[in-house]
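Hi all, posting the design record for the shared folder.

TITLE: backbone redesign
STEP: 1 of 1
STRUCTURE INPUT:
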């Protein structure tokens, strides 16, 4: 009973600690500014230049970092900055195993790895791989063609579709597969392998 209480308290503390701020966005003429950019990157424990380069690639805009603010020279589509931040979190921060954001980016044998401080899981980080946000939403019991981009600790395939990380047992990294979505829980979905394309 005591262990359950401690576990519950720990989870609440972790959730409180990793309350990631929402981007505070303002426009000044032709400039779009994220006022709290430094605050966000400090909370997620990532280098601001890494986050900056990711966002710049997403929108194809030039920009700069000044006084803790990220300044775009142009106007990204409405709502796209928030979506791009979520994509960054899923790709470069969130643990694929437990969903925790308490992770660190390290280098092992010339490879970049994301290590979870909560559960100890590790996964390789494929540097310079640009992932564009997809507007398409997935639904349970529907089939989709996906590409397996990674594996989790249990060897299950992983694919990112829109704002959902799809776990595909039996799929291998690099495969293009047809998957039926069995169930969706928050930002994760279980996919049933229908066929390998």
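Okay, here is what came back for every position:
SEQUENCE:
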């Amino acid at each position: 009973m005591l262990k359950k209480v401690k576990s519950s308290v720990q989870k609440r503390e972790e959730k409180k600690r990793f309350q990631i701020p929402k981007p505070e966005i303002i426009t000044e003429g032709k400039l779009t500014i994220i006022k709290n950019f430094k605050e966000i990157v400090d909370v997620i424990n990532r280098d601001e230049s890494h986050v900056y380069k990711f966002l710049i690639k997403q929108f194809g805009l030039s920009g700069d970092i000044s006084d803790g603010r990220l300044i775009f020279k142009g106007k990204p589509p409405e709502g796209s900055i928030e979506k791009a931040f979520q994509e960054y979190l899923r790709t470069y921060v969130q643990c694929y195993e437990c969903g925790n954001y308490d992770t660190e980016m390290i280098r092992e044998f010339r490879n970049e790895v994301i290590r979870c401080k909560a559960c100890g899981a590790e996964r390789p980080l494929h540097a310079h791989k640009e992932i564009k946000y997809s507007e398409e939403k997935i639904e349970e019991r529907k089939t989709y063609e996906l590409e397996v981009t990674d594996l989790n600790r249990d060897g299950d395939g992983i694919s990112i579709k829109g704002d959902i990380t799809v776990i595909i047992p039996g799929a291998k990294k690099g495969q293009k597969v047809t998957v039926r979505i069995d169930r969706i829980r928050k930002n994760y979905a279980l996919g049933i392998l229908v066929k390998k394309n």
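COMMENT: Residues 20-92 form a domain with the Defensin A-like fold (CATH 3.30.30.170).
Let me know if anyone wants the other runs.
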